[in-house]
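Protein modeling request. Please complete all fields; requests missing the sequence field cannot be processed.
Requester role: graduate student
Desired output: 3D structure, token encoding
Chains: 1
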Amino acid sequence: MRLMARRETQAEETPLSEAAQHYLLAVRAMTDGDTTTQASVLARSLHVSPQAASEMVARLTAEGLVRVADGRELSLTPAGREAADTIFRRHSLLEWLLTAVIGLGWAESDEEAGRLQGSVSPRVETAIAELVGYPSTCPHGNPIDAAAALARPRGTPLNQVEAGATVTIYRITEQAEEDAELLMYLEQQGLVPGAHATVQEVSAGRDSITLDGPHGRSSMGLRPAGLIRVLPGRADPTLFHHVPDIVSAGRRGG
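Delivered output (254 residues):
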């Protein structure tokens, strides 16, 4: 059963500015697992001033998309979650299009998708979804919407895996996606969803984890490793989306 069947055009949506979309996506990423965040943390993540973040949070709160609780904790309202899921789904579909069909790298596609996501109509969204095979995740393995999130395991942070274990790369979390250099490194090393790797060493003293992966040995800090989710052993390959062969073959033959 397709997880992304054709959707009826919803009632007229209130357009969100590009900045508002980025804020909603950031809050969505930071509150993964029903946690909360704060405007100051949001400001650091988006590289904006605390005042700018507070002003946007106030605007999104007035529009009923963000909730501010005691202690200044931020979370998405149901309407905010729905809006953020819509933006993320369109962003993810664009990433599949840009990587699997056009041939851009992860970091480039993430940046370009951020520019284009606000211009995608429901009709174009449906067409892209059909073209790339109705994925349930983005190319980095993150659930494309709330329904997909409920149907998929959460995975284990890579920095919690013991040396000697063989794992399957499962998700490059949304917070990790914000680091373009990390995305490029993981893609270059072949540490992408569905890839297998063996943990060789975990060192708290050197703040590093060393892996043997598809392209040989690689290492990274424990903090970025904590933003990567893995599954033990060789995970079920049906968990990982592949764009239809006819689409990817067209790019290779182009």
